[in-house]
Amino acid sequence: MLHFVQLVVTGLVIGSVYALVALGFVLIYKATSVINFAQGEFLLVGGYICLWLTVDCRVPFIWSFVLTMGFSVILGLLVERMVLRPLIGEPIITVIMVTIGMATVLRSLVTLFWGTQIRVFPQIFPQEPLSVAGIVISKVYLWTMAAAFIFMMVFSIFFKYSRTGIAMRATAADQQVAQSMGISVKRIFAVSWCVAAVVSSVGGILIGNINGINITLAGFGLKVFPAVILGGLDSIPGAIIGGLTIGILENLMGGYLDIYLGGGVKEVAPFIVLVIILMIRPYGLFGTVEIERV
Amino acid sequence: MPSGLFHTNYEDDEKILQTLWLKCWMWGFLVFLFVVFPNVASSLSAIFGINVLHMANMIGIFIIGAHGLNILTGFTGQISLGHGAFMGVGAYTSGILFMKAGWPLWLSLPAAGLVTAAVGMIFGVPSLRLRGLYLAIATMAAQFIIEYTMRNWTSLTGGSAGLNIDPPVIAGLALDTDKRYFYLVFVLVVASTLFLKNLLRTKTGRAFVAVRDRYLSAEIMGVNLFKYRLLSFGISSFYVGVAGGLFAHYNMIISDEHFTMWLSIQYLAMVIIGGLGHVLGGIFGTIFMVLLPELLRIPSQALSNVYPNIFAIFGTLRELVFGVVIILFLIFEPDGLAARWHTVRAYWKLWPFSY
After folding, report:
1. Is the pLDDT confidence value at B89 over 70?
2. Closest A-chain CA to B321
3. B330–A97 C-beta distance less than 8 A
4. What is the ipTM of this complex?
5. Cis peptide before B352 (omega within 30 of 0)
6. How confident is the model at residue A135 (pLDDT cuts 50, 70, 90)?
7. Which of A19, B206, B220, B287 has the greatest number of C-beta atoms within 10 Å?
8. B65 falls in which pLDDT band (50, 70, 90)?
C-alpha cells in the first residue's frame, strides 16, 4: 500500500510537469492547428539555458529563471517568424515535418554547446525530505508541483480574462472571423509559440531540478502526446487532467511491471496507453468530436 | 513532323516509356547499372576514397523503403513516423527465420514483408478513422512500442547485444561480397520501382491518390476509405519490411539501435526532399540523404586542421545539417528534387523556345 501511494505521489509530480508542457502543446494546436514535435526540444533548451546561467555564469537561480523565460520568448518568436510563418496554408505533413526538422536542429545545437553528459542543478530547494504518514516526499517534488500548478493557474486566468487570451481563443475558434473582428492573427500565432516555449522551458527547469539534464530530456517532451490525446487535443482542462493521469499511470506501470518485463516499462507505457485511447476514444476525454459522414 | 507527343491509340497512351528516346535511355541506364557500374566501382572507390559499392547497396536498400513510405505519405497522404521500427520488424523477421528456422532467403524475405505489413496494419487501424495528425502520433507510439519489444524480447531478438545473421546463399552462391549483394539489391530495386509505377496506374493506385487529394469526395465517389487506407498501409509496410530484411542480411548484425526514431525521420526526409508523390522522389531523396554525410566529410576534413575535434562532433554536425536541409527544403522547394528534375527536363526539351 505504501509502495502504491509513493508511486502515485511521484507520478503526480511528474504528471504535473507533463500537464504544464501539454498546456503549451494544446495552445499551439488550438490557435494554429500545428502539431509541435519540437516541444521536447523547447524543454531541453530551456533547461540547459537556465543550468548554464546558474552554474557557469553564477547568476542567482531566480534571475536565471527569469532570463530563461525571456530567452524562451525570443526563441518562440524566432521559430514562428522564420520557420512556421512561411508554411501557413501548407499541407499538414509539411508542417509536422518542419517541426521535426526544427527539433533536430535544436537538439544538435544543444549537443554542440553543452555535450551529452548529464548535468545537475546546484541544490536550490532544501534537501531534507518531508515525511507524511510514512510517505517520503522530497521538497523538490513539492516545489515542482507547486510551481507547475501556479503556472497553469496563471495561464488559465490569462486565457479566460486577458485581452490577448480572449483574442487567442477567438482565433482558435475561427481564424477568419477573428481576423474580421480586427484581431491580428499573425500576432496571436506569435504569442502562442512564445507561451508554448515559456511553459516548456519551465517544465525543463523543474524536471532538471529533479533528475538533472541531459539530451534524453527531449524524449520527455514526446510523452506529452499521450497526455494530450487522452485529454483531447484541443482541450486545456483535458491537457491538465491527461498530464496528471499519464504521470500516475506510467509510474504505477513502471513500479509494478518492471520486474516482469525487464525494465524500461515506464518509458513505453504511456505510448501503449496512447494506442489504446486511439482505438477506443480517438478524440480523448474532452476533445471536440468531429463528425464527418458521407 | 509532330512537335510533341500525340497519341492515336490507348496502348500508346498507357505506355510507361512513351518515346523511343526514353526507351533507349532507360535500357542504357539499366545496362550501365548492372553491367558497367559494378565492374568500374572498385576504381571509382579508389578515386573517391569511399566504398562505392557499399554506398550503392545502402542506397538500393533505402530506396525500397522510401518507395514504401512514398506510397503511404506521397500517394495516400498519410504520415508515418514508425517506418524505422517497421523496417526493424522486417529485419528481425527475416533474420530470425533465416537463422533460427533455417528458411532460405527467397522465403524469408517475402515473409519479412508480410509480417511487417501485418504489424503496420495493426497500428494503422486506430488512426484510419481519423485525420493525418492522429496517424503521425499513433505511428510514433508504434515506433516506441516496437523499439521496446526489440530491446526487451531478449530470447527472440538477442536484445541490445544484437542478432548475428549469416550472408544468404542463392543457388549455391553465397552473397558475401558487396558486388554479389549489389545484384540482389538492385534487381529488387528495379522490381519494386516497376511495381510502384504500375500500381499507380491501377484502380487501387488511383483510389490512393483520390484519398490523398480529398478523402470526403473520394468516399462520395464510392472509394472505401477504410479499405484503401489500410491497403496503403499494408503495401507500404511490405516494402519497408523487405528493405529491412535486405538490410539485416547485408549488415550481418542487427540490434534495436539500427531502427530508432531517427531512422523514421530520415525516411520522411528522404521522401520529402525527393518529392512526395513522385516515383522518382524516393530515388532522388534516398541518394541525397545517403550521400549527404559523405559530402559533409569533405569540408570536415578540410576544417580538421583548424578545429582538431571536428570528427568528435561529426555525428551532431550531421544531424544539424539534416535538420537545416529539411527545413530549407520544406520552405523553398516543397515539391522536392523530383519536381526540380521535371522543370529542368522540360526546359531542355523546349530549349531554346521556352514557351
Report:
1. yes
2. A105
3. yes
4. 0.86
5. yes
6. confident
7. A19
8. very high
- Collect all residues of chain A within an 8 Å Cβ-Cβ radius of residue B334: 90, 94
φ, ψ (nearest 5 deg) of residue B169? -120, 125
CB contact under 8 A, B334 and A94: yes
Of B79, B126, B148, the CB nearest to A282: B126
**Could you tell me the three cell numbers for A103?**
527539433
Instruction: Calculate what percentage of chain B has a pLDDT beyond 90.
Output: 30
A261 contact B CB<8A? yes
Residue of B327, B336, B329 whose CA lies nearest to B277? B336
- Label residue B287 by pLDDT band (50, 70, 90): very high
Q: Quote the cell numbers at residue A149.
A: 500548478
* Single pTM value for the model: 0.89
Say if the Cβ atoms of B216 and A35 lie within 8 Å: no
Query: CA of A225: which chain B residue's CA is closest?
Result: B137
Q: What is the DSSP string of B218-254?
A: HHHTT--HHHHHHHHHHHHHHHHHHHHHHHHHHHSEE
Select, from the ranges A111-115, A144-148, A198-202, the one with the highest average predicted confidence (pLDDT).
A198-202
Q: Do B151 and A102 touch (CB under 8 A)?
A: no
Cα torsion B55, B33, B247, B284 to 10°: value is 70
Contacts of A90 in chain B (CB under 8 A): 330, 334
Where is average pLDDT lowest: A60-64, B53-57, B131-135, B238-242?
B131-135
Q: CA–CA separation, B256 vs B161, rounded Å? A: 9
Report the 3 state secondary structure along A210-276.
Answer: HHCECCCHHHHHHCHHHHHHHHCCCCHHHHHHHHHHHHHHHHHHHHHHHHHHCCCHHHHHHHHHHHH
> Per residue, what are the HEC states of A33-95?
CCCCCCHHHHHHHHHHHHHHHHHHCCCCHHHHHHHHHHHHHHHHHHHHHHHHHHHCCCCHHHH
Residues of B in contact with A35 (CB under 8 A): 133, 136-137
- What residues of A are in contact with residue B330 (Cβ under 8 Å)? 87, 90, 94, 97-98, 101
Instruction: Calculate what percentage of chain A has a pLDDT beyond 70.
Output: 96
Q: Which residue out of A93, A105, A258, A281 would a mutagenesis test of the B interface target, given it has the greatest number of B Cβ atoms within 10 Å?
A: A93
- Tens digits of per-residue pLDDT, A80-102? 898 888 887 777 788 888 998 99
Which residues from chain B sit within 8 angstroms of residue A103, using beta carbons? 323
